[in-house]
């Protein structure tokens, strides 16, 4: 796929991406570094010994192709391995190095997470590698990492250190880094509750080969109701990414306008960066001209068709709830009253049901059963508004985290049938 012509200055790209990484708590004030190799061969890189949480565009350093340095600070002490990777892999134009906790855990255990937990994560992360230890900032570390990248690896665990990923642009490298850490975090959580289940090659193929080709239409002028729903979707997508309920490459969110029409996120666009103009209008099986709806559009359509009371749907990958999706452990909401009242009983959906065009996903999700765990693909939640769907997603993830944490405290105690009956009566859940 041809990358678009870059128009954002490398200083601004690095500053913005570092802000996201730091805001997601995927690096520390002093840890990590980002770089971009531009068309002239110059390398733009984050500086040494500057607060990552307060980086400005003027802090970014340019190391010219002739070795001269242009900037207010010295370049990162890890510049040697950035340079070595670029020399070993001409196709790589951007690098992310950081110390996110899950991947650091793997690095100090001399292993790497298996990304076949999810089809999208496996695809985005690329080929995974492991580079042996050498002193940070040393030429030997650069040689070790570059040799691993030269083998064709895209995401590389550094022994007792952290992770380095490369991409054809910084947004790709960031998404690869985020997806790789997501796989690591989910696997760690899954191992706390049971045995992790991985996708085989055929299952990965089924997910990768699915496509949706909707006819297009040119919509009329957007009324205030539509404009408001576009705003809400973008607002909650940003909030979801920042709360780590969503990641930039996975998940979809939609909101119903009327019986035949809904709005949905587009495919292959960074979820946190979406604007109201990116959201796609879908009407009677047609998509807005010039846009491409999420590949989950048929699943959203089926749920809306099946239950007229559903007004919003979100497919998401919050780490703790998703840990249940990659194990055979049943997710039980009968832990505290809020969990049961908001979620009722959460069903487990067999792998791939949501990819089918027969509408069978609607059997698992409705206002009477508003949340479900998707085998090896996160969760789906429905609500009577965008806020309601997002609230239920938060409750689902909080409950999952509490249940996982409870296992280190003692035996999980669920509420008995008489308490559930009382809740159903008190909150009119019958």
UniProtKB/TrEMBL annotation:
Alphabetized UniProt keyword annotations: Lyase, Metal-binding
Annotated ranges, domain Class II aldolase/adducin N-terminal: 12-188, 231-404
Organism in which the protein naturally occurs: Aporhodopirellula aestuarii
Name of this chain's protein: Class II aldolase/adducin family protein
Superkingdom as given in the UniProt entry: Bacteria
Pfam families: Aldolase_II
Gene3D superfamilies (alphabetical): Class II aldolase/adducin N-terminal domain
SMART domains: Aldolase_II
InterPro entries, A to Z: Aldolase_class_II_sugar_metab (IPR050197), Aldolase_II/adducin_N (IPR001303), Aldolase_II/adducin_N_sf (IPR036409)
């Amino acid at each position: 796929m041809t990358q678009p012509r870059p128009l954002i200055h490398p200083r601004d790209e690095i500053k913005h991406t570092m802000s996201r990484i730091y805001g997601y708590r995927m690096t520390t004030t002093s840890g990590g570094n980002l770089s971009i190799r531009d068309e002239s061969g110059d390398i733009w890189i984050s500086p040494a010994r500057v607060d990552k949480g307060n980086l400005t565009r003027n802090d970014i350093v340019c190391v010219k192709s002739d070795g001269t340095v242009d900037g207010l600070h010295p370049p990162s002490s890890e510049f040697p391995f950035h340079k070595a990777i670029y020399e070993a892999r001409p196709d790589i134009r951007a690098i992310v190095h950081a110390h996110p906790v899950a991947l650091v855990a793997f690095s100090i255990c001399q292993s790497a997470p298996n990304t076949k937990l999810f089809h999208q994560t496996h695809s985005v992360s690329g080929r995974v590698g492991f580079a042996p230890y050498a002193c940070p900032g040393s030429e030997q570390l650069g040689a070790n990492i570059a040799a691993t990248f030269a083998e064709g690896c895209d995401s590389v665990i550094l022994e007792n250190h952290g992770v380095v990923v490369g991409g054809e642009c910084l947004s790709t490298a960031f998404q690869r880094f985020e997806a790789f850490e997501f796989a690591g975090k989910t696997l760690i959580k899954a191992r706390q509750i049971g045995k992790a289940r991985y996708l085989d090659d055929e299952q990965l193929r089924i997910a990768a080969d699915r496509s949706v080709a909707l006819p297009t239409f040119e919509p009329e002028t957007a009324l205030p109701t539509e404009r408001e729903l576009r705003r809400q979707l973008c607002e909650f997508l940003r909030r979801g990414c920042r709360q780590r309920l969503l990641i930039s490459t996975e998940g979809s969110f939609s909101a119903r306008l009327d019986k035949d029409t809904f709005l949905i996120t587009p495919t292959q666009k960074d979820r946190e960066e979406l604007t109201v103009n990116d959201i796609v209008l879908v009407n009677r099986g047609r998509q807005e001209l010039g846009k491409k709806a999420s590949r989950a559009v048929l699943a959203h359509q089926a749920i809306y068709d099946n239950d007229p009371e559903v007004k919003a749907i979100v497919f998401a990958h919050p780490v703790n709830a998703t840990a249940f999706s990659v194990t055979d452990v049943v997710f039980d909401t009968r832990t505290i009253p809020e969990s049961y009242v908001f979620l009722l009983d959460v069903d487990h959906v067999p792998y791939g049901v949501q990819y089918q065009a027969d509408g069978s996903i609607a059997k698992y999700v409705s206002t009477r059963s508003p949340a479900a765990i998707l085998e090896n693909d996160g969760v789906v939640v429905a609500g009577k508004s965008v806020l309601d769907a997002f609230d239920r997603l938060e409750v689902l993830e909080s409950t999952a985290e509490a249940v996982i944490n409870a296992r280190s405290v003692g035996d999980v105690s669920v509420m008995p049938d008489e308490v559930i009956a009382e809740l159903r009566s008190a909150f009119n859940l019958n």
